[in-house]
Amino acid sequence: MNTNPLLSVWESYLTSQACFEFVTGINQHHKFFEDMKPIDADKKIERSKSDSEDLFVLLLWIKFEQCTRDYLQEQSKNKLYDTSSPVSLASSIFASFEKDEEFWNAIELLELLQSTLSIPDDLIDKAQQVSNFSYSLLNSKQKDKQQSKITVNDAYETLTKVVGLMS
């Protein structure tokens, strides 16, 4: 794994933050805001910014989860083919593994990564918090009871550290 798959999401996030700063400065001059009081326009912008930040955390998690699945598949395939004979048996076993792997939940993925790469408990705990927050965004029943908010910066730093260990 040569590049960080999370970097493009991070750069998009930074760009969006610059855009929100720009929009905040000119909101009273845009048609969308012309029928609103300035305070209402500011509230709408802040709500959009907060929603955008949550979506960036979710996107970081999605990219990370796919990267983790790809990594585990590649590592498993290499180990399986190195140790199995005949190769046709290894192919069948890996096909079954690949099919089942799609149903692993995020906690199982992180636990497997931790045992494979000896990732420190505190880093796995932080990654699980990002996972829990991301899934709570998708579950409308949990939206009112969201865990403490995970910032985009914290999610990016945590998940990048884990990705770095996969390199």
Notes on the structure:
Helix content is 75%, strand content 0%. It is mainly alpha-helical. It has one domain (7-166). Helix 2 (38-83) crosses helix 5 and helix 5 (121-138) crosses helix 6.
Please write out the topology.
Elements: H1 7-26, H2 38-83, H3 87-101, H4 106-117, H5 121-138, H6 152-166
Count of extended strands: 0
Helix fraction by DSSP (H/I, runs of at least 4): over 70%
| Rounded mean pLDDT score | 80
What low-confidence regions span 5 or more consecutive residues with pLDDT below 50?
none
Give the overall form: elongated
Main sheet: strands, sense, barrel: none
Number of discrete helical segments: 6
Strand content: under 5%
How many angstroms separate the termini? 5 Å
Tally of discrete structural domains = 1
CA radius of gyration: 21 Å
Which H/E pattern describes the elements? HHHHHH
Based on helices, strands and strand pairing, what is the structural class? Answer: mainly alpha
Summarize this structure briefly.
The chain has helices at 7-26, 38-83, 87-101, 106-117, 121-138, 152-166. With 167 residues, it is mostly helical.
Features of this protein?
167 residues, mainly alpha
